[in-house]
Amino acid sequence: MARKYFGTDGVRGLVGAGPITPEFVMRLGYAAGNVLAKGSAAKGGRPTVLIGKDTRISGYMLEAALEAGFSAAGVDVMLAGPMPTPAIAYLTRALRLQAGVVISASHNPFQDNGIKFFSEHGTKLPDAVELEIEEMIDQPMGCVASEKLGRATRLRDAQGRYIEFCKGTFPNELDLRGLKIVVDCAHGAAYNIAPHVFHELGAEVIELGTKPDGFNINAGVGATAPKAMAQAVVEHEADLGIALDGDADRLIMCDASGRLYNGDELLYVMVRARMATGPVAGAVGTLMTNMALEVAFKEMGIGFARAKVGDRYVLEMMQERGWLFGGEGSGHLLALDKHTTGDGIVSALQVLSALKRGNQSLEACCSGLQLYPQTLINVRVAPGFKWNDHAAVVAEKEAVEAELGERGRVLIRPSGTEPLVRVMVEAKEPGLAENMARRIAARFEV
């Protein structure tokens, strides 16, 4: 059954335009509340959900709408205020609640917002549950009797609980003393959490992106604009930089020189370090993961598999294979022995523990991985165009793949939102990727 409202990461869009309107979000809360109430009734309890949000101005409005919808369905609500997405996943599980809800559009600008759900286990809702919620959204909205209405309470010390959880994923025998770290929170949900985590573990912290005003989330800072962090590292003569996105589930880092390290490189550091304590069965990337990582893992005797783009699909494949590690080049990183979902702060701590244990720099830890040059060309096409029915494109793709052999790879995939086809080529030799990508792109015009 096709999804009508839920995408790969919840419901998302421009605030004020469907579906991100107060009326729709209230109905969403009511529908979700009814679905969750059924499961709770089977266990003999009253359902309670936790709501967190990032720092967008629209969060206040959408929080109130969700609260009203849940209350009308007879579901109690706990309000956590501005909190990272992975924090809500953790607290939902730790407090034994029926679900967690995050109001955030992650790395998008402040004009956008979204709603995503976590199950009682701190994982994203199963497809079947999301579809059940979707079926109820378009039904007439009702209201339980007054004596059954849900109540709303504020969760005390949500930040402190999560700070302690994050610190608990860092080895007890290690600390961050002697390190000066720039921590960029993108004026987002981690602004009052991430600096405390690294400071309490002993680091000297230089804060960046920790003054949200409702409108500046992800604006020129954070994981989607990491040059600001890199510049601050150089200016402050810091040892490292850590950049999170608006809801703190992405991570990009840099070293003392300001050299940036993406998710593929950081996943390599995490997996390589974990091998020192025992075998690692495998790791999951995506269709966009750099081929150099796949080659490096193969040489290390580690299995590797590619999922569709999106941390949801990475997690699903990790669970299917029973593997603990996965990630995307964009900075979504997962270590399932530390958390149930991607977490920028926790991932940064895993990288830092690797540096500390090996007494190495980030550059040294990545020395065994040299990313292949990658060229991505967006080709505008007619709506509904199917590239694999275009004989000239298919022939050129096959010719390029034959020439590359094991020295690179080709990926052609349509955009999910625009009439574009993305042509990506990776090749070990500089210049080869660009030349071959242009060869394939040119065939679209034939």
From TrEMBL:
Coiled-coil portions: none
Alpha-D-phosphohexomutase alpha/beta/alpha domain residues: 3-139, 161-258, 262-366
Molecular function via GO: magnesium ion binding; phosphoglucosamine mutase activity; phosphomannomutase activity
Catalytic center residues: S106
GO biological process: carbohydrate metabolic process; peptidoglycan biosynthetic process; UDP-N-acetylglucosamine biosynthetic process
InterPro entries hit by this protein: A-D-PHexomutase_a/b/a-I, A-D-PHexomutase_a/b/a-I/II/III, A-D-PHexomutase_a/b/a-II, A-D-PHexomutase_a/b/a-III, A-D-PHexomutase_C, A-D-PHexomutase_C_sf, A-D-PHexomutase_CS, Alpha-D-phosphohexomutase_SF
UniProt PTM: Activated by phosphorylation.
EC number: 5.4.2.10
Cofactor note text: Binds 1 Mg(2+) ion per subunit.
Record-annotated Alpha-D-phosphohexomutase C-terminal domain positions: 376-442
Catalytic activity entry: alpha-D-glucosamine 1-phosphate = D-glucosamine 6-phosphate
Cofactor(s) in the UniProt record: Mg(2+)
Keywords carried by this UniProt record: Isomerase, Magnesium, Metal-binding, Phosphoprotein
Binding site for Mg(2+): S106, D245, D247, D249
Presence of the UniProt keyword rRNA-binding in the record: no
Gene3D superfamilies in the record: Alpha-D-Glucose-1,6-Bisphosphate, subunit A, domain 3 (3.40.120.10), Alpha-D-phosphohexomutase, C-terminal domain (3.30.310.50)
Cross-referenced PANTHER family: PHOSPHOGLUCOMUTASE (ALPHA-D-GLUCOSE-1,6-BISPHOSPHATE-DEPENDENT) (PTHR42946:SF1), PHOSPHOHEXOSE MUTASE (PTHR42946)
NCBIfam families recorded: glmM (TIGR01455), PRK10887.1 (NF008139)
Primary role: Catalyzes the conversion of glucosamine-6-phosphate to glucosamine-1-phosphate.
Family indicated by similarity: Belongs to the phosphohexose mutase family.
Protein name according to UniProt: Phosphoglucosamine mutase
